[in-house]
Amino acid sequence: MKAFVASFLLFGLIAYCYGVSQPVIKDTKTEGCVGDKCGAHCAWEGAQIFPGEFLNQPGKCRKLFCADNFDIRITPCPPPTAEYEWVDRDETKLYPDCCGVKKDRRPKID
What we know:
It contains one helix and nine strands, in the order αβββββββββ.
């Protein structure tokens, strides 16, 4: 049952990432120290970010932002459209360079 719920949540997050809205992970507040900085901060999937700060995650091709209410806003790569697709994705680079380059899908008219 736990695996089903986890799979459902993961599928929902992936589907949400490709929607129009920016994905949000609600209420990620935790207390503690991160390096030499202590206090309340956002924590999710190993990321620890203080309110008002961004974290560009190497290898995950996304940028996270910790809001003042401790929600994490995720900025993913843009989804493909009927006109454009993204090619040459490179997970070793930071966001947005990791997303690749936009390639026009529309036929060329001579």
